[in-house]
Design a protein that fits this description.
The chain is mainly β and 171 residues long. It has a domain of 101 residues: Immunoglobulin-like. 9% of the residues lie in helices and 39% in strands. The chain is built from 1 helix and 10 strands. The longest helix is centred in the first third of the chain and has 16 residues. It comes from Soonwooa buanensis. This is DUF1573 domain-containing protein.
Length: 171
């Protein structure tokens, strides 16, 4: 009877030890200080440290400002995969966002990753224009089509170091 009971405990214990197991290279990714509108994508590496295939069933962000991407394919024992996390860097200020990772790991079916950082206002760039020769030709545009870019552009007055003669180009 005792041998049978010990045998069952040993089999059950081995069965639990023989499974998929999830681990991460890091659970917190600190963006540091980034500029508004900059690339908000970062990567977490997930590794299967068990001996059976690991499946990420869901990766769930806390809000719509964070978008995860991951492979639905099983992660084989000893192999790794990446979870790509995008944060909307058009939202200025400090942030700390949890991302829940659900898997078939029997010991850790739910893991939490965190992204954090600070998004500062976009810096204004000043460009210098040097014209040689001092005479430039410019086409006068009376009607313009809508812009194809998604970035906002402000019209600015340009001051040149030397006088420039403007001539209208006739079509």
């Amino acid at each position: 009877m005792k041998k049978t009971l010990l045998g069952m405990v040993a089999v059950l214990g081995f069965g639990l030890a023989s499974a998929q197991s999830i681990s991460f290279d890091k659970t917190v990714f600190d963006y540091g200080k980034v500029t508004a509108g900059s690339d908000g994508h970062r990567y977490f590496t997930v590794k299967n440290t068990g001996d059976k295939p690991l499946i990420l069933t869901e990766v769930k962000p806390a809000c719509g400002c964070t978008t995860p991407e991951w492979s639905k394919d099983p992660i084989l024992p000893g192999k790794s995969a990446q979870i790509k996390v995008g944060y909307n860097t058009n939202l200025t200020g400090t942030f700390s966002k949890p991302i829940e990772v659900f898997s078939n790991d029997p010991k850790n079916p739910r893991s939490v990753l965190t992204i954090k950082g600070e998004v500062g206002a976009a810096t204004q760039q000043v460009q210098t224009l040097q014209a040689t020769p001092a005479t430039m030709k410019a086409e006068i545009v009376k009607e313009a089509s809508p812009a194809q870019s998604k970035k906002a552009v402000k019209a600015q007055q340009v001051q040149l170091a030397a006088p420039v003669k403007m001539e209208e180009v006739k079509k």
